[in-house]
Design brief:
By secondary structure, this protein is mostly helical. 65% of the residues lie in helices and 0% in strands.
């Protein structure tokens, strides 16, 4: 089986990877990087491709999925209120400018 072959993965694992990939793309990652990270997450959670057979199942560890959500916002939290406020004002001005140029 060549590297990257997904035939040993279950349908559920493939759906999971697709959903995780969509989330990464929504956050602005390139498609190839989103796919790579999605499969890495599925592998970490489920232990890789699953083969059939009684008693071969391992419980899933959802910590890798939670980890991403917990890490989010750390950069913002380390900045002062004044810095965050200035950044928000700058962003609002940019959105306003872009909205005017779109019309």
């Amino acid at each position: 089986m060549p590297r990257g072959d997904k035939s040993s993965y279950t349908d559920k694992q493939k759906r999971q990877a697709e959903h995780i990939e969509d989330g990464y793309e929504h956050r602005g990652l390139p498609a190839a990087e989103a796919e790579r990270r999605a499969w890495a997450t599925v592998n970490k959670e489920t232990g890789g491709g699953k083969k059939s057979g009684s008693g071969r199942g391992e419980s899933e560890n959802h910590a890798p999925s939670r980890k991403g959500g917990h890490l989010g916002g750390a950069a913002s939290a380390s900045r002062s209120a004044a810095e965050r406020s200035a950044s928000a004002r700058k962003a609002a001005a940019t959105r306003r400018r872009n909205a005017e140029s779109a019309h």
